[in-house]
Structure formats: structure tokens, C-alpha cells
Amino acid sequence: MEKWRLIDSSPLTAAENMARDKVMLTTRSRNITPDTLLFIEFAPHCALVGYHQAIELEIEEDYCLKHGIHINRRISGGGAIYMDEGVLGWAIFAGRNTPGIPANLDEMYAYLCTSVVVGLSKLGVQAKYRPKNDIEVDGRKISGTGGTAMGEAILYHGTVLVDFNVDIMIHCLKLPVKKLEDKQIQTYRQRVTSLRGILGYKPSLPTIKNALQEGFSEVLGGTFTKGSLADEEEGLLNQEIPFFRSEEWIRGRKVPSQNSALKVRDYKAPGGLIRVSVLLDQSRKRIKSAFITGDFFAYPERSILDLEAFLKNSSSLSSDIHMNVLNFFNEHNVKIPGVDADHIGEALCQTISGTAR
To answer: Domain check: are 228 and 287 in the same one?
Structure first.
């Protein structure tokens, strides 16, 4: 059987947890450390944006500041999330060649989420995987997942809602639900659930962790031995934490300053929301700059940043945009589950034209 390391640490701040993700993925990609299952807790509570998102577009910063909610950025894609003591995080760090883990992204998502489904069944919770990256109970979300990769290693992580405060999430994230009527907001609340909501009580964290470990062991066919960070990881972590606390990392994707030629639009693809801002040179029919954010997961990690650079000063004509994006995807082997080159191209075109087709 495959041997895995199991790390179960005490709660950390958002910056410390995000830095640790980076460090553990780095050391696994260099074959310094073994395949690992990590359990994650946060203190204090925090709002996290995905790697491809902008703080200004996703987070209610004033609310977070007033209520002591830390703000940070994940190294993986996906949407903004709220993490408190009622949410347990888990993460898999593994080599791409780890036996059983599919190379295809969609198949990998389903496979690793099945581990959590099996683990939850140990608690008497009958959950199901919902493509592309959610786990639900009777149609209500109890876990969101996502991942990224570095070299020959993957990080796939997610949550289990133990006793979740939906109202704080609604207040600290910029969600369209805020514009809905009270009755509609109540319907939104009912789209998520928790272990307490299902079972009528909150299982202890050790009980939940043991159940999840059993689920991963059964599906992955591995044995888990408790361990801790290696010396190399500890050293790298001390180096990385200051950067993950910095505005440079947290702010990351900055929204372009307003301009009469700036056009913004949301486009919904099967794999997630694509939010596009395009600064145009209308007289020359050129894209001066493009800013692409959203709750998708892109591989390689820098794909969207590189695409934005590629699009600078390119043609803003619809046929050219689709061709340029397709060529970029092919040349850089870009993979975004549920999002292809045509979706990105169409999002750009709709933003520029101001119409939906």
C-alpha cells in the first residue's frame, strides 16, 4: 500500500496557512517530502480569494476590518470563501504519478472528492460528488474543493462545513445575494448545509478527521502515518510567511483604474464565472490591456496572467480574439476544467461588444 504522511496541526492564521500550502507543494514537487494529507484550521476567521481573483471585486473590506476577519489569497484558483472555526480544511499534496490518482483533471476531481464522500459516510452523512468541484447532501453544499499544480506535484484541497455561519459569509463576501429580497436570501442560505445541520449535533474535530482519514485511505489505497513538517519545510515556511502577509501577495490582482474605454462584463462558463475588464484603444481596434478574474481553476497556475500579457496590444476584432486565445491555449497546454479557449474568447468578445450572444 502507498504510504502517506498525515499532518494535523493547530489553527493558524490565513497568511500562515497559505504560506504552508505553497511550501508543502514546493517540497513535494522537488521530491523532498512524501505524499501528504493535511488537516487545516484557521484562527482568526478569514476571507480568502482565489488566485485569479481581485480583492476589490470579491471582498467587503470594511466589514472584514471591523469584525477582525483576515483577508488573504489562495495559491489555487476558485472563488472567494469564508473560513471560521466551524469549517475544517483538508488538503492532498501528491506526485502526479501517485498510483490511482487520474491524470485527467475532471477525473482527478471526482476521484479525490469521492474520498471525502466515503469519509462523511463514516459519520452517517450520505453525500454525493457534484461536478465540477462540490460535495453535497440532498442538493445542499457541504464541501467546496479545488486545486493547483507545480511541476510533477498536485495540491487538491477542500472544506467540510461543520457548523457554518452563512450570515457572516454573506456580509464579508461581495455576493449578488445582497441585492435579493429576504425570502430569496433565505433560499440562498438553504443552498448550503453543515454537519450540525444534518446530524443535529456537532461531531468533535478528532472524530471528523478520523472519518476523513478512513475515507482517503479506502479510496487512495494508502496507509497514513502521523508526522510533522520536515526541516526543509520549516525553513522555507519561515521565509515565505512575511511575503504571504504582504500587500503585494494579498492584493495581487489589481483592478484597472476607471477609463472611458474600460469595459467590464461577467460571463458564465460551465467551469465557473469569468469576469473580464478590457481597456481598449477604440480608434486602433486594439486591446490595451485585459484583466481576467473568476472562480475557475487554471493549470498551469500562471496561465491567465500569461494570457493577459499575450493579449496586450492585440486586435480587438472578434475573429482575431478567438484565434489568439485558441493559439495561446494550444501553445501553452492550458487546462481549465469546464472552461475552454472558446469560453474565454467569447467572454472577451462580449465584454468588448457589450452584448451577449
So the answer is: no
**Residue 82 in 3-state DSSP?**
strand
- Grid cell listed for 243: 511575503
Domain-embedded: residue 26: yes
Please check whether residue 265 is in contact with residue 351, taking contact to mean a CB–CB distance below 8 angstroms.
yes
Joined grid coordinates for residue 226: 502521523
Q: What tens digit of pLDDT does each residue of 203-226 get?
A: 999 999 999 999 999 999 999 999
Strand arrangement of the beta sheet that strand 272-281 belongs to:
262-269, 272-281, 286-294, 314-315
Nearest-angstrom CA–CA distance, 189 and 187:
5
Q: What CATH code is carried by the domain that includes residue 338?
A: 3.30.390.50
Q: Specify the DSSP element, H or E, that contains 214.
A: helix 205-220
Check whether residue 96 and residue 137 sit in a common domain. yes
Short-list 219, 353, 222, 204, CA closest to 278: 353
pTM metric for this prediction: 0.82
184-208 tens-digit pLDDT = 567 667 788 999 999 999 999 999 9
The alpha carbon of 214 is separated from its chain's Cα centroid by a whole number of angstroms, namely 24
